[in-house]
Amino acid sequence: MDWKTFFDRLGMNGTRWQWRIMRWERQLKGMSQGQVHPTEAFSLTRILIGANVVLFTLMALQGISMGLGMRAILSPPTQLLVQWGGQFWPLVLNQQEWWRCLTYAFTHGGLIHIGFNMVVLFQVGTLIEAEIGMGRYLILYTLTALTATFAGYLWHPFVPVVGASGSLFGLIGFAVVYYHRMGGSQSEYIRNFMFRWAVFAFVFGLLVGADNAGHLGGAAGGALIGLVLPFGVRARKKLAPLFNTLALACAGAILVSLVMLARSVLTS
């Protein structure tokens, strides 16, 4: 189909939409084949996956050294999860360990937990990062991690929480609203693709007893950002300084939080 002519007749920028649809088609085809375009080798999504895997590996190695054996890999005890950055609001409020509001999203409760979350992050994050850019993607990922954990505080403040699923639901909630705003058959296809992931992840969460409060908090935060984030070229250029500043602040917050976690582990 000649997408350029189609969108031109609708009074839209046919060239821009043709380029966008071609990019989506390449990404969806690659995702269905488990492939990523070579230019995405150093994407933020891959960096986030790498950080999660490294942290999980270090935690598992310490657990094994403590005599936990395979339990450290398959089902780490709560004490170990909290030691390695899990969210526990009494420690946040009483000992001012605010860095846990971000580090919990890099800590996982077992091989299946991190495996499932990283598959979702790879599938969903790759597409969204390519659409909105690395800076806005980092802001989205960070803010939805925060809305997820604050929802958990309102729901169950004394329950330890770990996992990236709050941010993942944030990405999905964002995508459903953002692509719905775009309109068009291709946007609707991606919106529905994301919605199916949300249903699948929610059902999986019910089966494993996941943090549904965090899921809802992340999804709500992502949906709100998807509702207000501009996607016009002119608006993006105008707001670029603001988003660049916010992205740097988010990157700094994550790095400082991980440093504080490392310091806590080393001194414990």
Description:
The protein is an all-alpha fold. It has a single domain (39-267), classed as Up-down Bundle (Rhomboid-like fold). It has helices spanning 3-9, 14-32, 44-65, 71-74, 78-83, 89-95, 100-103, 111-132, 134-155, 165-182, 185-208, 212-228, 233-267. Mean pLDDT is 87; it is low at 31-41.
N- and C-termini, Cα separation? 62 Å
In total, the number of strands is 0
Q: What structural class results from the helix and strand content? A: mainly alpha
Catalogue the unreliable spans: 31-41
- What's the CATH first level? Mainly Alpha
Strand content: under 5%
**What is the CA-atom radius of gyration, in angstroms?**
19 Å
User: Architecture, according to CATH?
Assistant: Up-down Bundle
Q: Quick summary of this structure?
A:
The chain is mainly alpha-helical. The chain has 13 helices and no strands. It has a single domain, classed as Rhomboid-like (Rhomboid-like fold).
